[in-house]
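Milestone M4 deliverable, item 7.
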Amino acid sequence: MHQIRNRGPQRPFTPRAAVPAPLLKLVDVAAILNVSKITVRRRVADSSLPHVRIKGRLYFKLEDIKRFIETQRVDVAI
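Output delivered:
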């Protein structure tokens, strides 16, 4: 039988930094917005769609996409 060794006093649990939400790829954003990948690239080029470039590839935060959708909203008076 194996004995469990006493490892001494345990340190209290300290939470680590929150894990960031995963980044969306260009194709994901195009699907969310129901537009082509070219349209997403145009919005990136005209700086209207926030993005991150990692090793030449485009990535997007879901919060930024939601904010972009809200800014594109048009209120119609009836």
